# Entry
Amino acid sequence: MATLVLTALGTAVGGPIGGAIGGLLGNLADRQWLGKAREGPRLTELAVQTSSYGTPIPQLFGTIRVAGTVIWAADLKETRERSGGGKGQPAVNGYSYAASFAVLLSARAIAGIGRIWADGRLIRGAAGDLKVKAMLRVHRGGEDQPVDPLIASAEATPPAYRGCAYMVWEDLPLAEFGNRIPSLTIEVMADAIPVTTGSIARAMAPNAIGGRVPVPGFAASGSVQGVLATIGALADGRWVADADGVRLRRGTDVATEITDAGVMPTGLKGAARSRSIAAVEGVPRTLSIGHYDPARDYQAGVQRAVRPGAGHRDERVEMPAVIDAGAAMTLATTMLARREADRVRRTVTLGFAGLARRPGEIVTIAGEVGRWRVLEAGVEAMAVRLTLAPVAAATMATTAVTSGRVARSPDDVLGATILRLAETPVLDDSLLTKPRLTVVASGQGAGWRRAALLWSIDDGVSWVEAGSTATPGIVGIVESVPDAVPDDVATLIVRLARNDMMLIDADDAAFAQGANLAMAGAELIQFGRAAPLGDARWRLSGLLRGRRGTEASPLQVGDGFALLTADASRVIDLPLTAIGRTVRVMASGAGDDQPAEARCVVTGASLRPPSPVDLRWEPGDGGMLRWTRRSRIGWNLSDGVVPPLGEEAERYRVTLTDANGVREVETVEPRLALPMAAGLTAAVSQRGTWLDSLPATIVLAD
# Structure
């Protein structure tokens, strides 16, 4: 510091007086050095994640939320997912991407990190749980920290970034962020001990003494002068050079009394004391403080103080510190009061004792009221002339104006994946050429979002990627099965996976459009009314059972339950060789310690036509066996309208069994001439393009 250098030099040349004069000159130089600092940290530097060269990296203190700087990135990882390709339909290739990259957080070591937001959505909770399926490593900035293994595998001479804190994301899925790297903000806990203006100042300049004003969080960037100036503004003080370095002096410090003010040495012209007041228009009418608001998850807040009177000028002060709204409002009011008090200037002339007074020091004048801050000290004709400004009275705590509501991303637990699957008839009017599984998934926690899917038809010897699950569905288990009573009075009780899952009623119009269609085991049902019973249990009534021809697979207690909606249902198309085999489906979500797994036997239910209905024997014309065919498509047609065939040709196989044995007859019409034969059993199957339907059976009796 210039004060130390010039004091020592002055003492060596001119003794005590020379030392005092040298100290005064050095003090002026130090004041100039401190006063020129305008390149301090700004709130806006922390608002947007960047990867530009020359971007200042802040030194973080306390707890604060920052965006960081991307310092390394690998090429995006592309995954192709093929879907569609049914009969007459083109296949569609979908692509998903994952990114691996490193983000520099702080130019000094940190204690750890807390929550992480991506485009405003919470992807790491306060408990450290990731809400995305990715790998995250945090390097806290130790001087001995190793090179990150991913960077080491990709670079010939990888840096370890020792002394700097950074994090590395490996395979962060980008589908939920528009297939781009999202804007990340990170809650950083830089220090394990309470932070004050003094501890920040000492970290920036070892010979700076900055007081003990608590600061929950601070981001220091730019020059040392700029950081010290920002700390001075935060603590409502000014820096004073002394023999130990620089010290922050505040208006509440102990004042030194001046007893010889007004003594005019011989030969010095002008008044011993003078006073001036600048025009009020030079003072800001409003002063705003930009800060990080802890009540808003450390997002930026603004508090604005307004003074009465003339003037139109506005001033904004960026304060890259974590302070609550009330403290920010009080600081804005205090700074505005100081600006107004600084309109007053006073000069006093002292003897040689004035050499001890330094800029920034708080003084009182003997016989006068008030406290004054020394702004300048000058030597003229062996006298010292001080320029003073009044110290503004301490501002009482001021009520803050809210910085606005924060729409917090919920910090919900993800929990393990819950998987429901079955091979069901297709839910639209497409004609499949391969067997298809319907998959609905959710999680034990409300924060669950998606899981990656794999399937195997060789008992896990090999696995095939199947993309990811759809949006979280409503899933549970069947607790009670309806008695053998008509559907309209039967009830079904299910227990959903979580208490926050809800079922609703469906009116007649919605019911007719397929609302409240659910998968219970391999049976499809519809329900018109849902009544909560408590503890995630629901009573379903107004039932329609065996929808789309699934009456042959009636539900049982303990079967999985899943509400089928377009956004929550995911389908997996399997090869024809899967028919007759057990398929294993594995789901791995961000909250899974071990993948969830479910199995089902592929019966071909998604390919075969539904069984004929209304099978009957009519005695006319010597006896006629008749039935009504159904189709894999056209389920939404009105009653009485014949649905499309849905197969290559209309054919039926009739198996007749009696005491004489078994014989098969084929027909291309939904009828067969058949004389009465008591005890004869007739089983009718529709021949399908890929598989025959399950048989409809009738026993003839006299």
